[in-house]
């Protein structure tokens, strides 16, 4: 396998890691208005991701840096063409991070509610816009002969990309709510499981529509098989949650998101950014990649660093594996 092909799939794996891990963070943030009946409930919800949210978020930094190093033309075209959308994602992530750190700094309820609103918006905006961005990458955008995006921001808000954004929004929401049910106890756990049942139905319908559209319009045999696996995993996750098997449901949601991302990358391959106006202007794995030497150095670095990073993250989740509930928050106050 050529190194540029290998790094195409490594970057796919990095985005899978990001969407699976930060995806449930987004879902927990979006669930505050639905599961947080009072400040204690909201503190329980935030504490389920408190020890890990910033670690989860580093995956997008690693993915972006790898994209820049392995496929600089792809990085330059996507980040310049999607500048406003990516800026909104960045601002939302900043607002969410600030809110986690500042909401507890003052006792006033109004102060806390303001930061809670920022958490909700800071979670929903990236969850939506990441889907819109990847939907446009798969669909193709107008590029000139120098691989510059020549469309407008509103060209990115097309029906397919918006459906992709709605799909990621709902997938992350359901993923996050199921995560809450695996990490909490008592009434919040019961409410989270019930909410996941309701949101799961909508998620199945929307995600199935998106996967069918992707397969019919942009897919290959390989991407069609991957899409089918994602659909089966999503339905299985819903059934597992319905039976009260929360951890199984969470694992199956991770599988769903992983195979959905693989579906998008398989639909792209061997392109990395198709040109909708002229196929000759498309960015491919070949014309967008760095030199073989650069990719070789990156491969050795990844081989050494990746196991260490994964072991550390796994250890972090093991340390903070216990469930929490209202009693833990109320005890901490005294």
Automatic annotation (TrEMBL):
UniProt keyword terms in alphabetical order: Cell membrane, Electron transport, Heme, Iron, Membrane, Metal-binding, Transmembrane, Transmembrane helix, Transport
Biological processes annotated in GO: aerobic electron transport chain
Membrane topology designation: Multi-pass membrane protein
Cellular component aspect of the GO annotation: cytochrome complex; plasma membrane
Protein's recorded name: Cytochrome d ubiquinol oxidase subunit II
Alphabetized InterPro entries for the sequence: Cyt-d_oxidase_su2
Protein's organism: Cryobacterium arcticum
Superkingdom per UniProt: Bacteria
A molecular function (GO) term: electron transfer activity
Keyword Transferase assigned: no
Stated family: Belongs to the cytochrome ubiquinol oxidase subunit 2 family.
UniProt subcellular location: Cell membrane
Chain segments annotated as transmembrane: 6-32, 74-94, 115-137, 157-180, 192-213, 219-240, 249-269, 297-320
The keyword Disulfide bond appears for this protein: no
């Amino acid at each position: 396998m050529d190194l540029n092909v290998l790094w195409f799939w490594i970057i796919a794996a990095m985005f899978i890691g990001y969407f699976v891990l930060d995806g449930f963070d987004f879902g927990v943030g979006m669930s505050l208005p639905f599961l947080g009946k009072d400040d204690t409930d909201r503190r329980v919800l935030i504490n389920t991701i408190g020890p890990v949210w910033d670690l989860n978020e580093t995956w997008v930094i690693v993915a972006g840096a790898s994209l820049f190093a392995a496929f600089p033309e792809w990085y330059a075209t996507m980040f310049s063409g999607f500048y406003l959308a990516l800026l909104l994602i960045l601002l939302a992530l900043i607002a969410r991070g600030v809110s986690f750190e500042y909401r507890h700094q003052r006792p006033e309820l109004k102060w806390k509610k303001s930061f809670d609103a920022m958490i909700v918006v800071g979670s929903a905006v990236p969850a939506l816009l990441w889907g819109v961005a990847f939907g446009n990458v798969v669909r193709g955008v107008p590029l000139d002969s120098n691989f510059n995006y020549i469309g407008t921001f509103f060209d990115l808000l097309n029906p397919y990309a918006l459906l992709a954004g709605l799909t990621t929004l709902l997938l992350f929401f359901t993923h996050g709510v199921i995560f809450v049910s695996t990490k909490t106890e008592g009434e919040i756990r019961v409410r989270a499981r019930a909410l996941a049942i309701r949101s799961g139905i909508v998620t199945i319908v929307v995600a199935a529509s998106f996967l069918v559209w992707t397969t019919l319009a942009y897919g290959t045999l390989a991407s069609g098989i991957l899409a089918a696996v994602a659909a089966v995993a999503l339905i299985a996750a819903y059934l597992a949650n319905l039976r009260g098997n929360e951890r199984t449901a969470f694992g199956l949601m991770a599988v769903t998101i992983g195979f959905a991302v693989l579906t998008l990358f398989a639909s792209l391959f061997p392109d990395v950014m198709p040109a909708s106006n002229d196929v000759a202007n498309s960015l491919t794995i070949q014309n967008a990649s760095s030199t073989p030497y650069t990719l070789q150095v990156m491969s050795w670095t990844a081989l050494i660093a990746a196991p260490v990073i994964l072991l550390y993250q796994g250890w972090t989740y093991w340390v903070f594996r216990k469930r929490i509930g209202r009693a833990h928050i109320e005890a901490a106050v005294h």
